[in-house]
Amino acid sequence: MDVHESVLQLIGGTPLVRLRTPAGGSAAVYAKVEFASAGGSSKDRIGLRMIEKAERDGLLSPGGTVVEATSGNTGIAVAMVAARKGYRAVVVVSDRISREKLAMLRAFGAEVVVCPGGLPREHPDHPVNAAARIAEETPGAWLAAQYDNPANPEAHYLTTGPEIWRQTGGRVTHLVSCVGTGGTISGAGRYLKEVSGGTVEVVGADPASSVYSGGDGRPYFIEAAGHFRHPETVDDPWPSSYHQDVVDRVLPVTDRDALLSIRRLAREEGLLAGGSSGTALAAALRVGAAAGPGAVVVVVLPDSGRHYLSKYFDDAWMLRMGFLDGDEDGTRLADTV
Ligand code: PMP
Q: Boundaries of each Tryptophan synthase beta chain-like PALP domain copy (predicted)?
């Protein structure tokens, strides 16, 4: 029989899809389509690895509870893996996450705690602090702590990086990825640098006001990418899952460019990707144009546009937020104007 024993075997192993780029001057650009993973994002890889490492380390036992603070996808991954393995999952989110992600968390049986968005890092109700408190107060609970968990970058070092190397036959020249926790770029980037003898260039893509690309930390719309800093936050160290030594440069991308990129991607390539995919894609097209023919650019698309149908693919939302004032991307539906 050609079967899988469980959904856990459907994590990762995602395809690379060639994107059409301007004829002539550009590099080949391939999208690493992470929404093809069972839980719908790159975070499935770390959800599985963090939980299995906790099991091996004796931190999580049958009947236990997995707790995590997340902008959504790590929670979805943790909830999916916990469902299959029989753990309880408590997921702490801010009220800024999309309706679709919230519904998915609940569909997988997670208990969801919603905190107000935009709080300073020190505030007790900041999702990271709330999750730590819940983990402490719940017997048998284990906090996944993706921002500080070495199993996060490790998952991408052991899976995403090797997949990209194998799928391109070792011809990849550039990796472009968003930086949220930094796990993807740090793990996959480190692997590709090592295996290529340092020739692969690793490029971060960042929402324009995020601190990773030198912004002032003002809020932006793209979920799960970059780093927002509340003006009252005093001590806000960058996550230890982000290894800056692996990253050659970080390109800022405006929300508008990111969102118009994914709307075009859906219409022109038939690939429905999320907002941070647009951030990465806009940066990758810049990298590809500058690198020229002969270069092979791989861009990680972390999740699906299905998570954001009520926002980025909703013309009324886009108009309300000022991202579609003319019909600049040609995707606005006539009947919504
Ligand atoms: N985009 C989306 C949609 C994500 O869920 C994440 C993970 N939080 C990222 C980008 C960033 O990936 P990483 O945390 O590995 O840096």
A: 8-303
Q: Which residue has the tokens 């943790």?
A: 78
- What is the per-residue burial (b if ≥16 Cβ within 10 Å, else e) of 65-88? bbbbbbbbbbbbbbbbbbbebebb
43 catalytic? Reply is yes
Task: Report the separation in Å between the CA atom of 25 and the middle of ligand 1, taken as the mean of its atom positions.
Answer: 30
Least confident of 8-17, 206-215, 313-322: 206-215
Is 92 in a helix, a strand, or coil?
Answer: strand
* Residues composing the chain: 337
Q: Which amino acid is at 194?
A: E
- Nearest atom, ligand 1, residue 73 CA: 5
> Pocket of ligand 1, candidates 37, 42, 78: which has the most ligand atoms within 8 Å of its Cβ, to mutate?
42
Convert the pLDDT of each residue in 281-315 to its tens digit. Answer: 999 999 999 999 999 999 999 999 999 999 999 99
Residue 115 near ligand 1, beta carbon < 6 Å: no
Flag whether pLDDT at 329 surpasses 60: no
Q: How far apart are the C-alpha atoms of 119 and 8, rounded to whole Å?
A: 35
Q: Is the ipTM reported for this complex over the cut 0.90?
A: yes
CA of 61 from ligand 1 middle (Å) equals 27
- 3-state class of 90 per DSSP? strand
Model pLDDT, residue 190: 98
Q: E-strand spans in the chain?
A: 16-19, 28-33, 65-69, 88-94, 111-115, 141-143, 174-178, 201-207, 249-253, 296-301
Check if 224 has its Cβ closer than 6 Å to any atom of ligand 1: yes
User: In whole numbers, what is the pLDDT of the chain averaged over residues?
Assistant: 93
Question: What's the pTM?
Answer: 0.94
The residue written with tokens 């340092």 in the block is 198
Q: Is 225's C-beta closer than 6 angstroms to any atom of ligand 1?
A: yes
CA of 276, closest atom in ligand 1: 1
